[in-house]
Amino acid sequence: LYLRPRLHSYRRGLDLLGPCRGRLILDIGCGYGYFLDLAQKDGWSVAGFEPAPAVRRKALSSVASTIEPTLEKALDGRTPDTITLWDSLEHTMDPRVELAKAFELLPPEGALVARVPDGRVFDRLDADLRPRFLGPAYVKFAHPTNPEEHPHHFTPESMSRLAAEAGFEVAGFDESGFDERVVSSRTRYDAAVRRWLHRRGSKLPYEFTMLLRRPAGSSD
What we know:
The structure is a single chain. The chain has helices at residues 3-17, 34-41, 53-57, 71-75, 95-105, 121-128, 134-141, 156-166, 188-200, and strands spanning 24-28, 45-49, 67-68, 82-86, 111-117, 169-175, 207-213. The protein is of the alpha/beta class. Strands 3-2-1-4-5-7-6 form a seven-stranded mixed beta sheet, sandwiched between helices. The chain is globular.
């Protein structure tokens, strides 16, 4: 239920980047390695940083050897051409710090792909979701903003400002399609309710992916 829409998101992110030409991609917070597996099949050299030991132990066999508990071990002295942050920034206490770290790791013209939940949903609930009482249920059970667990929410405008503060230039943008909406549940009834909420909120912003580049003339 969770993986299929996520693979759609990963594919769209790789499409934003274009041909890999053997470049190195670093996935920060890579989880079990599903994005790394897809990128590797596309011809990328891959490296993954995942701090959770239990997750690393269950990583996909095809990329398990490329996933390490620290950035230093993951890169092993190499410089990544691209860094990916899939559903990570909203979990950090200071996204400015994380973007600045990514900027320092990348070479000039290096790329960063970040996907985050779309905070514009809060401004659109009353206009696009009827009846109005469905709004809290939709945000709690169907939308990834997850106000109870995420310290930060982002809009394309706020992400662009944060990126500029870190030194990046916005080079691409993609709003998630309906096929990327996750129905994560434990029972069939729960899944049916979440699917119904997704249909009712199909016009609402869900997630977006932003492609950032370190300018060609930039230096540390």
